[in-house]
Amino acid sequence: MLAARESGLLTPVVTRDYAPQDLDERGMWDQCVNLEQQLETSNLRIRDPVLNEYLVGVMQRLLPNQADKIRVFAMWSADFNAAMFPNGMMIVNSGFLARARNEAQLAAVLGHESGHYLRRHSLQGWRNRRATSAVMAFVAVGAGAVSGATGSNWYDLANAINSGLLLSVFRYSRELEGEADSYGLQLMANAGYSPDAASKIWKQLIEERKASAAARKKKYRDGAAAALSTHPPTEERMGRLAADGMFIERAKQSGLTYDDGRERWLAATAALRPAFIDEQVKQNDPGASLYLIESLAVDGWDGTLRYYEGEAYRLRDEAGDADRAATSYAAAVEFPDAMPEAHRAHGYAQLKKGEVEAGRHALGRYLELRPDASDAAMVRFTLGQ
Amino acid sequence: MKTLKPWRALLVVTAVGALLSGCVPTYTLVKAEPVKVAKGQLTVQPSIAWNRVPRGPYDIVQEENWTQNGPLLDTIGFIAALPDGQAIAKQRPKDDRKVPVFRTSMTPQDLISMIESFYRIKAGANVFETQAVKPVQFLGVSGVEFDYSYVGADEIKRRGRSVLAISGGKLYLMMLDGASLHYFDAALPEFERLTASAKIS
């Protein structure tokens, strides 16, 4: 495999006109058809047309010849995860979209998942596990352990039906994950994305989990390194991806400039970005929330990030947090992109501090900006007191 | 099962446990007459009979839940006299995700985000939408009426209404939760009668 990686010659097993080869594989595809029908009508699907067209566009850039064989479903779920099914159905969680800073990081995950598809890993994985131990096939370690998942979701559902159906970014054999990582890097480099975006998104995730653990005075444990896990521990994977990324970067002809696609990413997610961050902050895992906001702010603070920084402090509610939140809200409303909700939060924070006039002014501003707000009656009542 | 609301998960857990131990926790009848709820802290007057959901390890002390058609379809919850510094859900200090604790200084905005966090963290809500936040009179003081809808991991769309008030420095909360197809609307008139009839005992 290493030789193939060095020569950049990982080739697809699943080609354009690919059809399931035998009974095992046909059975897996049939189960996927059922799952996909449920996904299409799911209440949790993110139906924003701008985002969905954009995802198709990024897939076309990564896989110019086969992009139409992969259907990407963006789903509301706070956990950082994405998954590939053998029939070309892919899930990308809002919890990942919230954390990606640019198109290259999105492409890193889409490329990794495409690698599973093109190399037909689900069938291999399923056969390997069936051969070794029927029990292992149903041991669920991975996404939940790494990202602190609370509820079950599509991943669990697919696993319950047949664990071989799905390959998520956190699961399965080291060899297959390593190959998918390499294939993803190869696709990225070919599409003109900087391959080191892949290691950066993993680094961000590790740092976030460490921040979350530290905030609760718990010891960070690389969930991916748990005893039952067969996939590369996240830190090990990050190091390997960084090395691979550098290798591919060096191997590319000099003079080629990489594109992180940040502007395209921001344009495509503009309408959803506050909701993505909102979903994370409302989980009230303050260490993770504040880390996430700071990692996004590496590219520059804006009104949305300052507002959610305030929200993270307000929900954390430790000594001094009311003042910290008030400071964040005050900064948020100074930005031209300040959300109306930032004015509301700013107003209530000032009222709490006893700054009645300033607080009333900010709440008034909220009603001006959003006269038909769902809580307009409540805010008017507060103003009338 | 983690996707179930705490009281729903509890039902399954206790039902299985009970089958194994031979001791079945039972629903009890709530008659259509004035009744004290939530450790006797609140008195309400139902106009129809309800089923009191058995208590379990996920409930906080100040909590009581009723259902008409089973907790997956409709639930009315009561939390009464919750003191400052306590949460509306049972949780451990080192939990990754925590519902903010109640504070007497909470603004309406703080109260509704406490409810939203409860749904997102404890009830597995993946999509949560605020529909309306209004001032109401509840227990003789000004309170907040909060309407919302959400989709949990079971993909069922549900609606909820929470009515909250702070009286004597303590939180009083009544909560209706039901499948948005039929059950929420069916239970709403009775819920409104219950909140209107509610008195601190």
The shape of chain A is elongated
Count of helical regions of chain B: 3
What order do the helices and strands of chain A follow? Answer: HHHEEEHHHHHEHHHHHHHHHHH
- How many β-strand runs of chain A? 4
> Gyration radius of chain A, to the nearest Å?
23 Å
Secondary structural class of chain A: mainly alpha
Describe the model:
The complex is a heterodimer of chains A (385) and B (201). In chain A, helix 17 (340-352) packs antiparallel against helix 18 and helix 18 (356-369) runs antiparallel to helix 19. Chain A contains 19 helices and 4 strands. Chain A has 385 residues and is mainly α. Chain A folds into 2 domains: 2-128 and 174-220 and 231-254, no CATH class; 272-384, Alpha Horseshoe (Serine Threonine Protein Phosphatase 5, Tetratricopeptide repeat), CATH 1.25.40.10. Mean pLDDT of chain A is 80; it is low at 1-7, 132-152 and 223-232. Chain B is an alpha+beta fold. Chain B has helices at residues 6-21, 108-122, 183-197, and strands at residues 28-30, 35-37, 42-44, 50-52, 63-67, 74-82, 127-138, 141-151, 157-167, 170-179, 199-200. Chain B has an 8-stranded antiparallel beta sheet with strand order 1-4-5-6-10-9-8-7, with helices on both faces. A 3-stranded antiparallel beta sheet of chain B has the order 2-3-11. Chain B is globular and about 40 Å long. The termini of chain B are far apart. The chains are: A mainly alpha (385), B alpha+beta (201). The A-B interface holds A 42-44, 76-78, 148, 150-153, 212, 216-218, 279, 282-285, 288, 311, 314-315, 317, 344-345, 348, 351-352, 374-375, 377-378, 381-382 and B 1-3, 93-101, 103, 105, 107-110, 112-113, 116-117, 120-121, 124, 126-128, 130-135, 142, 144, 151-153, 155-157.
Structure characteristics:
heterodimer, A: 385 residues, mainly alpha, Serine Threonine Protein Phosphatase 5, Tetratricopeptide repeat, 2 domains, 4 strands, disordered N terminus, B: 201 residues, alpha+beta, 8-stranded antiparallel sheet, 3-stranded antiparallel sheet, 11 strands
